[in-house]
Structures are given as structure tokens and as C-alpha cells.
Amino acid sequence: MEEASPAAALHAHEAVLQEGVVHLKGFLRPDQQRELFEGIQQAAQTYTPTRARNALSNFQKIMYYNCKSHKHLIPSSFLWLSSEACAAASDASPDHIPPSYSPDYATSFLYPERDGRLTGHVDKVTGWVVLFSLGCTARFFVKGPRMAKREVLDFRSGDVLVFNGGTEWGIYHGIDTVVAGSTPEWLPELASARLSLQLRQSERNDNRPPPNTRPHTNYA
Questions:
Q1: Gap between the Cα atoms of 30 and 15, Å rounded
Q2: Which of the residues 172, 174, 176, 212 could staple to 139 if both were Cys, CB 3.0 to 4.6 A apart?
Q3: Domain residue extents for the chain
């Protein structure tokens, strides 16, 4: 029997924060979370972890693939899951998110339960981003130019966020805290940490920002 796509059952669990910014809640099943975690562990074996360069952030980069500057290939399992997530987000915001994309960059960050955080920022790198979360819940904030106020998400294990990192989209985001004791039982290795996987298409595609969108500095 053919395995069901994770996108097939997710439509009741999606949240459109603004056009082109979609939070897919509970997108990955427990077994898929385990497989993704194990895939990240394997991919990280050849990378020496580095700490956040910003003193106000607290995380470690544990894996990095750049298909343009290196001859690495992003694992096919990462590409498949991110493509499914992109398609699901496109269903929720079809005029702004493409139904498919071709990531050429992948990285993974580990946030400790205690004082794990990411300073608010706009990526300023054009291209669609698919961001997976595993382990502890992150209090993840997002503020786009067309959002009435800053949204703070409970970004749980198995959730995905899809958005465009380009300057013209102005998607300000970061992590306030990592919630202690929130890791699901099927990921005991992450009992005191949150792990992310980000896959990015760094090239511009045909989709454009929502109308009347301008980068802004009011992120309250």
C-alpha cells in the first residue's frame, strides 16, 4: 500500500498568518519526526558545530548544506518532506506560495531548553523557506507587513512554517523562549532541546509579495 502523504490530512491544522506566511500545525507524524531527527543526526556527523554569532541569541548550528558553493547534496528525505510542506502551504495561500520549489540550502540549529533564543530579524535572502521544528516547543514570533500585530506561535514538534525570506517581504521572526518539558515522548533525545531544520530556495521565482507590502521597522 502506498504511504499517505503528510499533506493529505493537514488542512484542518493550517494557519495563514498573512498571504504567503503559513503555519502548518502537526504536519509531521511521530514516525516522520523520528525519521527526520535521525536524518539530521546522520547529516550532522561531518559538520563541526558552531555557536550563534549574535550574543543575544543562544543556539548551535549543527548541520549545513550549500549546494551552490559546495558539491554537497541535500538528503532526498529532507527534499521530499519540504516539497510536501511547500505544496500544503500553497494550498492555503495559492496566490503567493508556489506549489513547488527547489531548495539549494539546508541548515539545522539546536536550541537548549534553558535560555534558547533567536534574536528577531528579517532574513534578507530572497527565496522560499520551509522550517521544521522538532523536540521542545518554541515560542516563535512572527510579524509581517500585512499582519495587524506580532504573532507568538507555539511552534511544536512536527510543525512547519513556510514563508519568503526576501527583504521585500519583511517577515520579522525569532524565538523568545524554549518551553521546558514540552518534548513529545517519541523524541527522548531532545528532552531538553529544540531542533530546527531549514530548507531554502535562494533563487527568486515567479511569485511576488502581496500587494501594498512594504518592509517596515515597527515589529511590536
A1: 21
A2: 176
A3: 13-202
Residues 33, 139: Cα–Cα separation, whole Å: 19
Residue 210: the pLDDT is 57
With 0-12 / 13-18 / 19 or more C-beta atoms within 10 angstroms meaning exposed / middle / buried, residue 71 is exposed
| Beta-bridge partners for 108 | 63, 197
**Alpha helices, DSSP H only, in 26-178?**
30-43, 76-92
Is 173 annotated to bind a ligand? Reply is yes
| pLDDT given at position 2 | 38
Cell numbers for 185 = 515522548
Phi, psi (degrees; rounded to nearest 5) at 9: -115, 15
**Could you report the per-residue pLDDT of 146-200, keeping only the tens digit for each?**
888 999 999 999 999 999 988 888 999 999 999 999 999 999 999 999 999 999 9
Nearest to 130 by CA among 2, 6, 3: 6
Please list, residue by residue across 120-154, b when 16 or more beta carbons sit within 10 angstroms of its beta carbon and e when fewer do: bebbeebbbbbbbbbbbbbbbbbbbbbeeeebebe
13-202 — its CATH code?
2.60.120.590
13 annotated as belonging to a binding site for a ligand: no
123 is in an annotated binding site: yes
User: Between the CA atoms of 122, 127, 133 and 137, what dihedral angle is there, to the nearest 10 degrees?
Assistant: 20
Residue 192 CA to residue 152 CA, distance in Å, equals 21
